[in-house]
Amino acid sequence: MFLFRIIMDSCLFITFIAIFATLRSANKPKKNMFMAVTLPYDVLDSDFIKEMQKEYKSMCNKVYLLMLITAIPCAFPFWIFNNIMVYIFYFMIWCLGFAYYGITPFKLMNRKVKAEKAKNGWFVGEKKVVYCDTKTTLLKNSMPISNKYFLIPILIGVIPLIISIKNFSPENIAFLVVAILNLGLILLLFYIAKIFNKNKLKTYSTDSEINFILNKAEKRMVSIYFLINAIIESLIVIVFYLALFEYIDIKFLNIIVVSTLVLSSIVALGFIYIKKKISDLDEELTSKNKNSEIIVDDDDYWIDGIYYYNPNDSSKMVSSRFGYNMTYNMATKHGYFMVKKLDKIVLIGTFILMIILMVPAEISNSSITFSDNTPNISISSFPYSYELDYDDIESVTLTSEPISFTLRTNGIGTETKCIGNFKSDKYGKCRVYLYFENEDDNPPYIVAKLKNSKYNYLLYNTKDDKQTQEIYSKLSNKID
């Protein structure tokens, strides 16, 4: 449970920082743009802009405060939630809710600035013009790194799939699903990188040298970013699989988890670094030759300053005006699908996958039956059923000693229920079916020492202490 809390709290922190950094980045003019609206340079120093900055900051502070207050159940889940499924659903709603609606201050300010711009006629440069520097375009293929380097993360991503197939069982189906999704994510990163590399080059200036430097820097940095992202993703998953299936020493799992969180944070912040680097380089180069700068007023192609819709532009992916990410051209079929359809498919698919994998284990209770046939003992607890013979049991005891687990390789582990494959300092590898009233509860449970099994012990009890005692008595009589 400790590792689970670290992972979830870290995801919470990363989400908050990402939204905070994204919103904060919009409150400062970038070249001749404010709130993703193209404006004359002299307007950027006006009282109107200063007033908008003050109002926007106030709105963002309210969003930050609301995020922190509603994050309390996520940061301290087991003080509020008794059911881990309820907690996970709340966490997902929190993340998705603020990802979609947390940027509302920016949308409102973008509309205000656009309206004021139209009212005052603050138009600058040419409207709805797409520039192309043919000299720079000829050198396009020399800018990004080669796609062949993506074979590295793809080959690494295949290994967890092989491991999950080799160790497949109905109770390990989640590992197979995750391995498939992991490989799919690596291929998606490769696909996105490939699309970005094929995009039309940007024309920043009438100076081809400036265009070449900026486009080359962005293409190479972004393509390297996607490659590193894919490699880190594949390495994290393979190390977890090697540890969980005991190909490597699982004592280092805590270190692995912490390293995973650190690497994930680096990946999350990597694109922020790239965008800032390109923006700083752009300002540095164009500031030296203001006369060569090309300004195009294409605000009409940006919906709320976030969504790009330009039928005159063949690019499928473009740099976003807001935040530190890329966005898609919804005027293309690919862009429309990625913006309007893919997120809904992923969201619905995630919820369905959670229901399929987690709900049955969460709501089901275990039961044990004895028979004179082989196998003699059957424990039913979907999807973690277990069967064994009386001869497989070396000894059986009943105890109420406190127990803690160092690792859960599969199954479910909450404050009130532990079902599946666990590892304990005292019992080693064990098959567990335990119920607790609360975190500090020490109910009686059966400890069956096993032989001829991949588990050292079987730990079992029911929610009813009296019923647990009856099962222990019956089991003792059977093996005597």
Automatic annotation (TrEMBL):
The chain crosses the membrane at residues 6-23, 63-81, 87-104, 149-167, 173-193, 224-244, 250-274, 345-363. It comes from the Bacteria. This is Bacterial Pleckstrin homology domain-containing protein. The keyword Iron does not apply. Keywords: Membrane, Transmembrane, Transmembrane helix.
